[in-house]
Amino acid sequence: MQTTYPVPARVSEGSRNIANNMAAYREVYSLAQSDPDRFWLAQTRERIAWRTKPTVGLEGGYATVAEQPFRWFSDGVLNVTESCLDRHLESHPDKTAILWEGDEPGDTRTLSYHELHEQVCRAANALRALGAQKGDRIIIYMGMVPEAAVAMLACARIGAIHSVVFGGFSADSLRDRINDCQSKIIITQDEGMRGGKTIALKSVTDDALEGTRSIEKVLVYRRTGCDLAWDESRDVWWHDAVDSADPAHEAEPMAAEDPLFILYTSGSTGTPKGVVHTCGGYITYTAFTHATVFDLRPDDVYACVADVGWITGHSYIVYGPLANGATSLMFESVPTYPDAGRYWDMIERHQVTIFYTAPTAIRALAARGDDFVSRYDRSSLRVLGTVGEPINPDAWRWYYDVVGEGRCTIVDTWWQTETGGICITPIAPTTETKPGSATLPLPGIVPIIVNEEGQPLFGPAQGRLCLAHPWPGQARTVWGDHPRYVSTYFETYKPFYFTGDGCRRDRDGYYWITGRVDDVLNVAGHRMGTAEFEAALVSIDAVAEAGVVGFPHAIKGQGVYAYVVMQAGHEPSEAMEQQLQDAVRKAIGAHAKIDRVQVVPGLPKTRSGKVMRRILRKVAEGQPEALGDISTLADPSVVEAIIAGAKT
Ligand code: 7RM
Question: Which of 10, 45, 540, 589 is deepest in the core (most CB within 10 A)?
Fold first, then answer.
């Protein structure tokens, strides 16, 4: 059996990548490691349109992060939208910047760089007229329409800090985010469209605003034209405010370390954290990684089918591709609408050359058979990417053999909201791949595997993945709570950044990410905290306690397993199961579902009262024989009941 996949000869022709052979990769990697400042200053000067070019690289670092955030390029001045828009007007104003494919196949729109620039300038002027100023927070709660990208860029243009909230989040989640960042304006749309169904974005926004005080204006883009409740003093139509605004706007000069955006992400404990990315470092890193990993070429039609509500959409639909002057496809629908051929149909019609999706979609589509793929012409494809979760070798091979006809490079890209961009990945078409491995670190990324005590392990090893040195795209802080940033990422395995992932390194130095080792769930590529599920469940009167863990799921990667302890006097029932689902849907959103519920007499706790989550995990994984040491349990009989009633 073949274990490594060599570089296909045809795709390596024409690559002008910085690492177009392995020797070049090793050389660039060691340059970046020995002199990171020099490497990153050269990258940013080459790739980014600075008003004032930076002369300093990194200041500070992990050792001093508790005192203050580390900084990159701090004497530089720029506005990221000049890199994404203005400079392309000279060389290719008519090139398609955004190629939009709507929910219905063939419902398309294109925005050239010239048109996108004009729209962004209009929206920037409209936001200013609504009272937005540099440093203000603006929430964007939209579906996948080009105006979502216009809104992000318009915020960046005026120096406002956007925070995109995925359109699947509930009113409760949206309200928490508005309150956390004290957003002054929210940009939404009447309804979203997804897989033939509508999503009531404006009415959810109305609900969310009850219990908030900071929002002054709601800017509403009309997508479907449905009837809406309207507050004349607060609500403004996008079409009234933006279409009539001046199409010229002088971008706000920003310091490199001014915040560009906040993106909320789930962790082990508590409510989601507002991860902060800054202008200069983030745009440098997304431009560099997008061009390098995918071996971007001028005529590429690049399609990332993520949602702009997640970091992948920020970095690899909007900022990276536009900084690189690429044609970036935006996809409003789902992979199975109207049928499981949708991606490949779209690839044929738009002659897509680079395609980037999640393993969960690949597994779901592979399960529907090869015919949906083979009926479309995929000969335009050159690079196929995956992101969001570990990809199992079977799904990898199906992507490589069936979708890519053995002709394309697969890039399994490992990264996180906090890393801003891709960190461990093959570089197309250079890196030899192995199905299921994210392969090697990009230049500037220094992975360290540590054991549970935090000791670095060398050579082939298995343990926890840390990164040892800052890179420009790394998040700088948590909005309003720098101590939480420090304790979450930098205190577990000092002096390293702890990713929360488990990882193995093989004899060739290749990295294999094994998934989260903390209490973060990754369900169908959606990152959610077990603590958020538990808080939702115990809010129900009939529920005394709840413990939520993940278990392996063939399509979704992980499923959600809930152990529920009933309040005395309440009996489990079907109606109660529905109540549990409703509670998580209300607290988190439509993408949060419980797959299995087990009513238990109690949770396994130590004598000091700490829930032994390891036991809950092992039982949910169907491995009750591997519980390990349970001698510290307060009441071992609880474990017997849990094992006896396990739902598998
Ligand atoms: C980009 C994104 C981050 C978590 C991360 C991992 C998992 C992401 C891969 C992966 C194995 C990959 N940001 N993850 N990519 N695991 N192989 N190629 O997904 O913040 O939403 O999630 O996702 O566990 O820590 S995220």
Answer: 589
In a domain, 270, yes or no: yes
Among 465, 494, 489, 422, which residue's Cα sits nearest to residue 273?
Answer: 489
For residues 565 and 474, state if they share a domain.
Answer: no
User: 428 and 323 in one domain?
Assistant: yes
Ligand 1: centre distance to CA 516 (Å): 9
CB atoms within 10 A of CB 514: 14
Average pLDDT over residues 80-85: 98
With beta carbons less than 8 A apart as the criterion, state whether 568 and 601 touch. Answer: no
What's the confidence (pLDDT) of residue 10? Answer: 62
Please tell me the distance from the alpha carbon of residue 155 to that of residue 186, in angstroms, as a whole number. Answer: 11
Q: Could you give the C-alpha distances from 21 to 7, 16, 47, 411, in angstroms and in order?
A: 10, 10, 21, 16
285 Cα–ligand 1 center, Å: 17
379: CA distance to ligand 1 center in Å?
A: 29
- Domain of 118 in residue numbering reads as 22-499
Of 166, 513, 516, 518, best ligand 1 pocket probe by most atoms within 8 Å of the beta carbon: 513
Which ligand 1 atom is nearest residue 513's CA? 11
Q: What is the pLDDT of residue 1?
A: 46
Number of domains in the chain: 2
The CATH number of residue 190's host domain is: 3.40.50.12780
- For residue 334, being part of any structural domain is answered with yes
Residue among 289, 414, 431 whose CB has most ligand 1 atoms within 8 A, to mutate? 414
Please check whether residues 494 and 536 belong to one and the same domain.
no
Residues 462 and 607 placed together within one structural domain of the fold: no
pLDDT of residue 648: 80
In angstroms, what is the span from residue 500 Cα to ligand 1's centroid? 10
Torsion of CA 303, 306, 308, 310, to 10 degrees: -140
219 neighbors 140 (Cβ within 8 angstroms): no
- The CA distance from 194 to 573, in Å, is 33
Q: Report the Cα–Cα distance between both ends of the chain, in Å, rounded.
A: 33
* pLDDT score at 3: 66
Ligand 1 centroid to residue 486 C-alpha, Å: 20
- One DSSP character per residue, 553-577 reads ETTTEEEEEEEEEEPTT----HHHH
**What pLDDT was estimated at residue 8?**
67
Q: Is the CB of 415 under 6 A from ligand 1?
A: yes
* For ligand 1, atom 21: residue with the closest CA: 527
In a domain, 613, yes or no: yes
